[in-house]
Amino acid sequence: GFPRTLGQAEALDRICEPDLVISLNIPFETLKDRLSARWVHPASGRVYNMDFNPPHVQGIDDLTGEPLVQRQDDKPEAVAARLRKYKDAAKPVIELYKSRGILHSFSGTETNKIWPYVYTLLSSKIPPVLPDEEN
Question: How many domains does the chain have?
Fold first, then answer.
């Protein structure tokens, strides 16, 4: 997400005035598990997730047959440390947007269950884009 720090929020304020901020509250363990299940093909940057987007053959890129690697910062211990650091840095950002009355928070563990609520909020704030023939 962005902004992740108060400094980034202040920099954003200098170029625009956010009027809607979405915060997704996902349990620590869910985030840790998802991020720790991420593997990449270094040459292309293709990303696989062993839980919901695994390669056809475990540990092998679908297109090249080359080995996949897990980045150091995606290993469980590193993910846990990153999440703790993020939580500490993001807390003042959340409070800032909450105090402005523009923060909308959604909680859950599954995208397909959270998305309809986020979509409804966004649809109420952003007018639909009509095809050219309807304009």
Answer: 1
